[in-house]
Amino acid sequence: MNVPMVAFYKAHHIAPVQQDMSDFDLHFQRRASLYRHLGILPNFLKGRSVLEIGPGLGCNALYTASLEPARYVLLEPNPASIEGIVSLFAGHPHLNARIEIEPRYLEEYTPEQPFDFVFCEGVLTGAEDPRGA
User: Fold this and answer.
1) What end-to-end distance do the CA atoms of the chain give, in Å?
2) Is the pLDDT reported for residue 48 higher than 80?
C-alpha cells in the first residue's frame, strides 16, 4: 500500500496534524461539544468497541479513551504519528492502558470482530480509494 500523502510523511518523518492542547480541559470541552453536536453522548462509547482510523498524534483519541470504551483500536500507518501517540499517552497512563495501536493502512486491516463505532476524521480525502474505504 502506498498512499502518496502517507508515503511522503513516512519518507520525511512528518506527523502533519497537531493541535493546541496547552489547555487540556478546553481541548476536552471542544471534543465533548463536537460529540454532542454529532449526537454522541459520553455513555454511548462506554464499554463499546471503537476503531479510530488515522488518529494522527492521538490528541482527539485522548478524549475518546477517557469515555472508557471496552476496546479502542487506533489504526495509524505513519511511524511519526505512532511515536506521537505513544509519547502523548505515556503522560496519561490511565488512558494508555485503554488503547491498542495497529500500524496499518485501513485497506490492510481486517478486524476479527466488527466494531460498535468507527471514527474517521479528516482521513478519507487522502485515501487512495475513498469510496472503497
Assistant:
1) 13
2) yes
